[in-house]
Amino acid sequence: MKKAFITGANKSIGLETARQLLQQGFSVYLGSRNLENGQKAVEQLKAEGWIDVEAVQIDVADDDSVKNARTEIGKKTDVLDVLINNAGITGVKLDENGNLIPQTAESTSIDVFKEVYETNVYGVLRVTQAFLDLLKKSDEPRIVMVSSSQGSITLHSDPGYNYKYYHHKGVVYLSSKSALNMVTVNLAYELRNTNFKINAVSPGFTKTDLNFNHGTGTVEDAGKRIVKYALVGNDGPTGKFFCEETNPETGEIPW
Ligand SMILES: NC(=O)c1ccc[n+]([C@@H]2O[C@H](COP(=O)([O-])OP(=O)(O)OC[C@H]3O[C@@H](n4cnc5c(N)ncnc54)[C@H](OP(=O)(O)O)[C@@H]3O)[C@@H](O)[C@H]2O)c1
Question: Using CA atoms in the order 72, 12, 24, 26, what is the torsion angle rounded to 10 degrees?
Answer without folding.
Answer: 0
